[in-house]
């Protein structure tokens, strides 16, 4: 039995390393070309996480740092599936998120924005996808926040998302944006992505069917990781 | 694979686009470092576990940007085999590695100095792909070694290495690289991935230096240069 092989990453979907409007990328981008490496077992395997690594409350940001009440803000559910490029679910994979609070302030010693910390909100969560690749989080919708890029740059509301997949070469960190946010087209980080359709796929859609009436609004966000390739011409006639 | 009903052609989804991990990556992936406790079990601090076979080592370094300055908000993930050269894996009924050996970890840099470091064990040799090892295109098939594949004339081993993945503010898509060991010169000389790098002088950017011992463990120094002079080799994996 061989580990799966993976489709080549289409780098035209992703932001290039050097994107001068996002200023920090200028000194932090390699100048030389990447060396293409056909996947060996070092790239086509990846870490395994189990439910023993997590607490059941870890995906509930309304409760996982609550001290004397719930956090302030728009209560939302973020849910979706982790799929590969073949539209197959990616089960049992770790999904981690982090975000600012409703006012756009991060609970991080380096964040000095004047909007206040919420004493009942930590801003991070994690979960493991189920057998169908499904995940969900409960949280509050993050606020926009200013950052020192151009003088008047504001990040759209966003949630950072980290996904593992089953191979180290599937490892991905991205950001979730919210449907209809007028800051999206103005953001130099969003606009590092050359393909408008790829930006649209990072935009979570309002999902009224998953909304809990009188409780929480839901957004749907599917995450697509690299697909596994069948190698039927070798000694794996079974394909995937 | 989904089939498009209109023309019966295969229809693939497209990978989600990467975005930078940003300045506050620690909140999500290392909240203790961000200054608060939230999870009972913060992941990534113990790569090898107490039962791991092999030589315990310390790896240290710094990530340096194009101005020569240390990057103080980087997060690095490590993926490695155990001392036998075996990886933990998802398929095939669980791992054939020691209990508690995870093979994966993550570290962040010191916010003041930019220095990072982790303890692990030195990995064993792992088998490469056949064609990369032999260089005989068309004669030897380019096969992927199986999980427990043994080295033979078609499957030369890769020298011991750690796979590293680097994310930070200003890095739009995680950077993959490898760390090799300077005291494995013989194995490095025939490593198929190092030999894939056409520019011989660039191979040295992937080789960590044994810089003495501490607490009975060899310490390896591995600085990563994102840009400019001696820019580290990064891979499209």
UniProtKB/TrEMBL annotation, chain A:
UniProt GO MF annotations: ferric iron binding; protocatechuate 3,4-dioxygenase activity
Domain Protocatechuate 3,4-dioxygenase beta subunit N-terminal, chain residue ranges per copy: 7-38
NCBIfam families per record: protocat_beta
The entry's keywords: Dioxygenase, Oxidoreductase
Membership in a protein family: Belongs to the intradiol ring-cleavage dioxygenase family.
Stated name of the protein: Protocatechuate 3,4-dioxygenase
Region spans: Disordered: 1-21
Transmembrane region(s): none
One GO biological process term: 3,4-dihydroxybenzoate catabolic process
Residue ranges annotated for the Intradiol ring-cleavage dioxygenases domain, each copy included: 45-227
InterPro entries: Intradiol_dOase_C, Intradiol_dOase_core, Intradiol_RC_Dioxygenase, PCDO_beta_N, Protocat_dOase_b
Domain of life the protein comes from: Bacteria
TrEMBL record, chain B:
Pfam families, per the entry: Dioxygenase_C
Taxonomic superkingdom: Bacteria
GO MF annotation terms: ferric iron binding; protocatechuate 3,4-dioxygenase activity
Presence of keyword Oxidoreductase: yes
N-terminal signal peptide: none
SUPFAM superfamilies for the chain: Aromatic compound dioxygenase
Family to which the UniProt record says this protein belongs: Belongs to the intradiol ring-cleavage dioxygenase family.
Name assigned to this protein: Protocatechuate 3,4-dioxygenase
InterPro entries: Intradiol_dOase_C, Intradiol_dOase_core, Intradiol_RC_Dioxygenase, Protocat_dOase_a
Entry keyword set: Dioxygenase, Oxidoreductase
Keyword NADP tagged: no
Intradiol ring-cleavage dioxygenases domain residues: 59-87
Lineage per the UniProt record: Bacteria, Pseudomonadati, Pseudomonadota, Alphaproteobacteria, Rhodobacterales
CDD domains in the cross-refs: 3_4-PCD_alpha
């Amino acid at each position: 039995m061989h580990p799966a092989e993976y489709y080549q990453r289409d780098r035209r979907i992703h932001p290039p390393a050097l994107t001068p409007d996002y200023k920090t990328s200028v000194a932090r981008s390699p100048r030389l070309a990447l060396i293409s490496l056909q996947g060996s077992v070092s790239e086509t395997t990846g870490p395994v996480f189990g439910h023993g690594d997590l607490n059941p409350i870890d995906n509930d940001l309304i409760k996982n740092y609550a001290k004397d009440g719930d956090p302030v803000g728009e209560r939302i559910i973020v849910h979706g599936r982790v799929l590969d490029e073949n539209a197959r679910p990616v089960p049992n994979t770790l999904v981690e998120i982090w975000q600012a609070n409703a006012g756009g302030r991060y609970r991080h010693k380096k964040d000095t924005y004047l909007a206040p910390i919420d004493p009942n909100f930590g801003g991070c969560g994690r979960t493991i996808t189920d057998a169908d690749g499904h995940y969900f989080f409960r949280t509050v919708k993050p606020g926009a926040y200013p950052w020192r890029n151009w003088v008047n740059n504001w990040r759209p509301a966003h949630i950072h998302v980290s996904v593992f997949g089953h191979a180290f070469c599937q490892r991905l960190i991205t950001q979730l944006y919210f449907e209809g946010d007028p800051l999206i087209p103005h953001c130099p980080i969003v606009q590092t992505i050359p393909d408008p359709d790829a930006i649209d796929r990072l935009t979570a859609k309002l999902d009224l069917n998953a909304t809990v009436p009188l409780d929480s609004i839901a957004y749907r966000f599917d995450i697509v990781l690299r697909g596994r390739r069948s190698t039927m011409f070798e000694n794996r006639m079974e394909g995937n | 694979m989904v089939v498009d009903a209109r023309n019966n052609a295969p229809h693939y989804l497209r990978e989600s686009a990467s975005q930078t991990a940003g300045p506050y990556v620690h909140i999500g992936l290392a909240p203790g470092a961000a200054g608060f406790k939230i999870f009972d079990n913060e992941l990534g601090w113990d790569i090898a576990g107490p039962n791991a076979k092999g030589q315990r080592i310390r790896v240290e370094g710094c990530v340096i940007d194009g101005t020569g300055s240390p990057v103080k908000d980087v997060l690095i993930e490590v993926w490695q085999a155990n001392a036998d050269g075996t990886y933990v894996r998802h398929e095939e009924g669980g791992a054939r590695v020691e209990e508690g050996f995870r093979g994966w970890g993550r570290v962040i840099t010191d916010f003041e100095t930019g220095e990072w470091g982790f303890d692990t064990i030195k990995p064993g040799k792992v088998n490469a792909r056949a064609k990369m090892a032999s260089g005989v295109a068309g004669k030897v098939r380019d096969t992927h070694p199986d999980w427990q594949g043994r080295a033979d004339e078609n499957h030369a081993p890769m020298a011991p290495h750690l796979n590293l993945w680097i994310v930070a503010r200003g890095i739009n898509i995680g950077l993959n690289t490898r760390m090799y060991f300077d005291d494995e010169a013989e194995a490095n000389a025939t490593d198929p991935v190092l030999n894939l790098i056409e520019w011989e002088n660039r191979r040295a950017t992937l080789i960590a230096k044994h810089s003495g011992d501490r607490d009975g463990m060899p310490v390896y120094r591995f600085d990563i240069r994102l840009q400019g002079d001696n820019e580290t080799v990064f891979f499209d994996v």
